[in-house]
Amino acid sequence: MTSVKSGAQPNVLAEPPVLWSFFQQTAAIAEVELKKIFRDPTEVLARAVQPVLWLVVFGVVFSRVQGIPTGNVSYLAFMAPGILAQSVLFAAIFYGIAIVWERDLGIVHKLLVSPAHRASFVFGKAISAGFRGATQAVVIYLAVLALGVQVHWAPLSLLGVLFGVMLGSAIFATFSLIIACLVKSRERFMGIGQLMTMPMFFASNAIYPLEIMPRWLQILATVNPLTYLVDALRGLMIVQAETLHSPLVNFTILGVVFLGLSWIAAALYPSLVH
Known about the structure:
The protein is mainly alpha-helical. The protein has one domain. The protein has helices at 18-39, 42-47, 49-62, 75-92, 96-105, 107-112, 118-147, 155-183, 186-202, 215-222, 225-237, 247-268. The radius of gyration is 22 Å and the shape is globular. The termini are far apart.
């Protein structure tokens, strides 16, 4: 007869590292969300029409106004990064409506009973929103190219714009998720989303510089993450553009905002089922 040593342990599969498991869970959520885009890309294409109209109509008309100080660039060039940031905001701020639908269909209940970390749901959806925002950048670049705006074509500049667009999309999508967790109703969510988009857009440096704003609006603009996204995109995208901060400073601020919103969203996500 064979004997088993007293100190022997059963042969079990080693658990993967916690960080690696988190990355796997996040990638799985992002993959599921991206499949929705590939199956029905019409939403992304439809949202691409609005920024083009802003550039062609609003930008061309206001480029004739001489009273807006834009430094060494034309008003159309000054405005282009702001319209890109606006399209990112408008597309991502309503991202949370899908979360409300998932709750009503029972999908959120199934996700919450899985062993996946709650933060992986938030980061996975944020990554998906980032890829949605990247499509907006392609549309804006094609539009400004047709309008004759001088942009930086250096690879680092293009990668910086892409990173900024994806980070901005992730921020506003996560903020949208927080709203969805708090209101829990499609009607209220749509009302709050529509209420917040335009004030956030106009309380930023998207279509006019901060120095021409009244003091109270300048204060609001300094706490508006859209201001730092526009500033980063303007510096990376437009030739001879004047910026408030360096891209590194802008991205650092946006990164801190994203981490803070992600922590809040991960804490609130289970409340969707209550």
